[in-house]
């Protein structure tokens, strides 16, 4: 049939394969006949099913590209909402593990957010929100893991503690509702405490005061923090050193 010149026969067989779930063979036929149906009544149907066969086969790069072409070619189609959703989902499927480059995740989030904003009454709205939330959490985790790494490296490299503090502030500011927010606030407290304890005497009091403020902020936002034990131990060290400065000042 691929060698057959009868376009109508190819169209009918492609439809048959698609209905049977044989997306590989349907895809090959739709690829051949799609150019023949440009501008014709069946063109919209052919282009949508061609896009969907890529999606069903797991070729999400091509699926995303083809669904975008479909939407541009047939903006008034009753399949536009479904095509927009499946196109966004194609990019979602391309999103890699959190530890890898997140360019595709950014693209997927943009597509999903556009869909959510454009079609709030769609039957796909809830699932699009679930996927967007999952990708947001993935990006937050990547940022959080970098923050953790800065803090860990700070045991051996003082400048990394400064990076940990800055990264913590940026994370909390950029991700106000993150599940890692409490963790980020604790890491800031930990990093500031280590900075203060390893500073020159002339800088120590100021940095102890900053560490104390980080402890107060953590407790204010999370009164029953899961880091209660560790935070209390750090605060006791901070208080002890601040008391030492107070005693020294009084003796003078």
Keywords for this entry:
252 residues, mainly alpha, 0% strand
SSE arrangement:
Layout: H1 7-20, H2 23-33, H3 43-57, H4 60-73, H5 80-94, H6 103-118, H7 125-153, H8 158-174, H9 181-197, H10 201-221, H11 228-251
Brief summary of the model shown:
Helices cover about 75% and strands about 0% of the residues. It is mostly helical. The radius of gyration is 28 Å and the shape is rod-shaped.
- How would you describe the shape? rod-shaped
Let me know the number of strands.
0
Q: Please name the fourth-level CATH homologous superfamily of the domain at 140-252.
A: Tetratricopeptide repeat domain
Helix-strand makeup class? mainly alpha
CATH fold-level label of the domain at 140-252 = Serine Threonine Protein Phosphatase 5, Tetratricopeptide repeat
Strand fraction band? under 5%
Please bin the fraction of helical residues: over 70%
Q: How far apart are the termini? A: 99 Å
Main beta sheet, described? Answer: none
Order of helices and strands: HHHHHHHHHHH
Number of helices: 11
CATH architecture of the domain at 140-252: Alpha Horseshoe
CATH C-level class of the domain at 140-252 is Mainly Alpha
């Amino acid at each position: 049939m691929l060698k057959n010149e009868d376009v109508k026969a190819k169209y009918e067989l492609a439809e048959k394969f698609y209905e049977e779930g044989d997306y590989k063979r349907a895809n090959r036929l739709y690829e051949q006949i799609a150019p023949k149906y440009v501008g014709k009544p069946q063109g919209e149907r052919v282009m949508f099913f061609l896009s969907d066969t890529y999606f069903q086969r797991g070729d999400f790069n091509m699926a995303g590209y083809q669904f975008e072409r479909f939407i541009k070619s047939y903006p008034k189609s009753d399949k536009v909402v479904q095509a927009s959703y499946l196109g966004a989902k194609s990019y979602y499927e391309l999103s890699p593990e959190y530890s890898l480059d997140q360019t595709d995740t950014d693209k997927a989030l943009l597509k999903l957010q556009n869909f959510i904003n454009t079609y709030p009454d769609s039957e796909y709205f809830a699932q699009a929100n679930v996927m967007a939330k999952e990708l947001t959490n993935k990006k937050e985790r990547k940022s959080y893991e970098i923050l953790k790494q800065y803090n860990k490296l700070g045991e051996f490299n003082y400048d990394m503690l400064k990076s940990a503090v800055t990264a913590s502030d940026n994370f909390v500011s950029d991700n106000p509702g993150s599940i890692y927010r409490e963790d980020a606030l604790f890491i800031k407290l930990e990093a500031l405490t280590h900075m203060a304890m390893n500073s020159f005497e002339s800088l120590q009091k100021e940095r102890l005061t900053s560490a104390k403020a980080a402890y107060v902020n953590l407790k204010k936002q999370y009164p029953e923090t899961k880091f209660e034990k560790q935070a209390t131990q750090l605060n006791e060290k901070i208080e002890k050193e601040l008391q030492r400065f107070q005693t020294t000042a009084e003796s003078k």
